[in-house]
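Hello forum,

I keep getting stuck at the same step: I have a sequence, I want structure tokens, and every attempt I make locally crashes halfway through. Rather than fight my setup again tonight, could one of you with a working pipeline run this one for me? It's a single chain of 93 residues.
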Amino acid sequence: MVVKEKRGRKRYILFEHSNKGPKINLENFFRNKIGNLESKIKCKLIEANKENGIVRIDHKLLEKSRDVMNNESEDLNIITIKTSGTIKGLKKS
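Reply #2:
Ran it on my machine without issues. Output:
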């Protein structure tokens, strides 16, 4: 297995939320809370609908990102469900 030292490794987190407003509320949360952390891969909201969403992060920030999402999302009530290295892996179940 080749380690992707230069590009970095990605992880995808599936989460539930209670955001009743526009998608920009979720984007601002991830940009402000997790986007400031230093990493090779920038935090990005991949997709979001009315109940859940998927965010991409650097593998080194996985634990810290999950902690922030579960504990510091007062208005959005984000709860992480599953983590995977591929989007396809998240959508299987």
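The longest helix spans residues 24-33. If your local run keeps crashing, start a new thread with the error log.
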